């Protein structure tokens, strides 16, 4: 399988604080890749480096064989940040249309992709509502739709299901699998252990270092435990 | 076109946000009206009490003053002064004119003295020899409001554009949308120019409304061309906007944005020509040269009071433009903090 993302010896510091330490990572085309780690482990920082918002202090990032950061590559990456980045005064539709325009979509195409994305996240009926009247879960789903506007080949989702009830979480994961079937690669961060089970492969992140990386089954088997949580602890995720 | 996408979005947001829209237009109109009410009052007419004056002088004062003169003894006059019933008491002591002024109100003082001096002059010279006075700039109708009004229009436009522009750019960062923007292929300069044009549209409207209101409703003294005035106010607004978006990079929340007002905005009004600068210390004069409002207000005064053309003050215009250009470039660089590319 071809690699869509390669990270070589990535290190990043904020001032003196080393937030990422010697990260080596590769993600295959078409898989759902999970980044699991407790709060403060460096997940958000890591995905921002992949997206190209942050630049690593050391090391290199390659997306589709080209070096990041690059404005050209940003066109093929979709990013959903940990906090909802939406304009409260605008309607959902106006938000989506704005981001679609930034990806260079023409008016007609915009209409099409907005309807398609709204359908995926189940917001078709609420498109004309102003975002400030949206519930937390609706905003989360709208953020997801906003990252789908330009049909990206690589979708990066930073804790997409935080604050979403279990039922909706299940339906959003179903969507991830549908997106995957349509050929999209998904990188998703989470600190919820049972979500990690749904990924094809998983990297465990602790204190800015990757402590393990494999399929969930193999990670559990290697340590001879039943749950991802136990595996994480066994790999040293619990020791501080 | 990414710039136009940002412009359109700002316009959509702004039209929904009625309060900010009102702050941009109604607040400056309200404040300028209040200042007009205070400064554009009629000339002060002093009440003068007299005792034992030579007849010609009494007649002459009677002619100059609007109110009837009151005859009072010195004792009575002092009581009237205490109750603020009169502004001055006039009598002769040892063959010299003796004036007792109420003294606590500068406007009343100078109006009283002016009346008395005019009366003495008239008595000495007779009417025929009154000097001919002409005005090179302005007219004898020019009052305090006309004088400071031109500066105030510039100042309030600067002030309110600074607040609204700065806070909305700051919000872009605090609500996370700047980061989202920077994850798209948009270039940094496209964001900055999107903001300038988006807000620019509204500041043109703002300048148009405030300038028309001042000139046509409040009847502020206006010797020059209205459209040239509008151009200067617009340029000033763009400078305020670019300064605000630049400084918002150094604020973490709305309150910190407000803290820039006493530091960056208020000092400008003191050095912008409302008070004479010639008498200030050298280093203060240098300070005033670093402030965009100094040049903007100077150009506005030249147009409004002296009836000059915009090309008579082209240096001021170029400097204001230069300030805006510098702020814009710095702003594009400041965004590097959030994305190097
Ligand atoms: N802009 C920043 N400046 C300084 N420190 C930061 C910054 N962003 C994140 N950090 C630090 O980096 C560490 C990792 O943060 P983050 O990547 O957000 O973790 P996670 O997403 O896994 O919760 C934390 O200790 C955080 O305090
Ligand atoms: Mg995070």
Describe the structure.
- The complex is a heterodimer of chains A (240) and B (341).
- The termini of chain A are far apart.
- With 240 residues, chain A is of the alpha/beta class.
- The longest helix of chain A is centred in the C-terminal third of the chain and has 16 residues, at 166-181.
- The model of chain A has no long low-confidence stretch (mean pLDDT 91).
- Chain A has helices at 43-51, 71-74, 92-102, 107-120, 136-146, 166-181, 193-196, 216-223, 228-237; strands at 3-14, 17-28, 32-36, 58-63, 66-67, 77-80, 154-158, 185-190, 201-206, 209-214.
- In chain A, 36% of the residues lie in helices and 27% in strands.
- In chain A, the strands form 2 sheets. A 6-stranded mixed β-sheet of chain A has the order 6-7-8-3-9-10, sandwiched between helices. In chain A, strands 2-1-4-5 form a 4-stranded antiparallel β-sheet, with helices on one face.
- Chain A has 2 domains: 3-76 and 152-237, P-loop containing nucleotide triphosphate hydrolases (Rossmann fold), CATH 3.40.50; 85-151, no CATH class.
- By secondary structure, chain B is mainly alpha-helical.
- Chain B has 2 domains: 2-39 and 143-337, no CATH class; 48-125, Periplasmic binding protein-like II (D-Maltodextrin-Binding Protein, domain 2), CATH 3.40.190.
- A 4-stranded mixed β-sheet of chain B has the order 2-1-3-4, with helices on one face.
- In chain B, 38% of the residues are buried.
- The model of chain B has no long low-confidence stretch (mean pLDDT 87).
- Classes of the chains: A alpha/beta (240), B mainly alpha (341).
- Chains A and B meet through helix 2 and helix 3 of A and helix 1 and helix 7 of B.
- The structure holds adenosine-5'-diphosphate (ADP) and magnesium ion.
- Adenosine-5'-diphosphate binds at residues 14, 17, 19, 37, 39-45 of chain A.
